[in-house]
Amino acid sequence: MDDQPQWLTDEEMEAWLALVSLLIKLPQALDGQLQRDAGISHFEYQVLAGLSMSPGRTIRMSELAQLSDGSLSRLSHVVSRLEKRGWVRRCTDPGDGRYTLAMLTDEGWDKVVETAPGHVATVREVVINPLTKAQIRQLRDIGRRITDAADPGGTCPR
After folding, report:
1. Are the CB atoms for 51 and 64 separated by under 8 Å?
2. What is the pLDDT of residues 74-111, one digit of tens each?
3. Residues 111/87, Cβ–Cβ less than 8 Å
4. Sign of the torsion angle spanned by Cα atoms 92, 96, 98, 101
5. Are 31 and 37 in contact (CB under 8 A)?
6. For residue 154, is it left (φ>0), alpha (ψ between -120 and 50) or beta?
7. How confident is the model at residue 68 (pLDDT cuts 50, 70, 90)?
8. 10, 38, 125, 134 from 67: Cα distances, Å
9. Which of 93, 107, 146, 149 is the most exposed place for a label (fewest CB within 10 A)?
10. Using an 8 Å Cβ cutoff, are 107 and 86 in contact?
């Protein structure tokens, strides 16, 4: 058995470096726009948006942590900040007292509605508009394949 690493070809290295650059620059662009225009981080927006798309605008904290790709500890700190702003409320799950629910308040819903257009405009500007329709489909397919390989349990939303 050969213990030597299987080095990337030049073409594979170019693709890898393009992806690494994307992973660095895209979060900066999204976070920058949200900080500038809405005074929130991209992670905070993901939490609010996740709640806004949940039935009854309510979800278990553990599920929200998976949805927003954050640890329960990080999520708890962020939800505390969002609670102080009046956008989120926490309560015990009446169906199972072992769980805590996060609920989007009416003020939180208003924040999502106010923030979403600018966020979508930035996503369109930096991700969608530079691509053809065929490239958008390819991006979707490539993103799903990489996500499935990196997250075989399927905890990321599609």
Report:
1. yes
2. 999 999 999 999 999 999 999 999 999 999 999 999 99
3. yes
4. negative
5. no
6. left
7. confident
8. 35, 21, 24, 28
9. 149
10. yes
Range with lowest mean pLDDT among 12-16, 38-42, 73-77: 73-77
pTM, two decimal places: 0.86
Place of tokens 């007292």: 97
Indicate the domain borders of the chain.
33-149
The two structure tokens encoding residue 70: 């954050």
**String of DSSP letters for 45-113:** HHHHHHHHTSGGGEEEHHHHHHHHT--HHHHHHHHHHHHHTTSEEEEE-TT-TTSEEEEE-HHHHHHHH
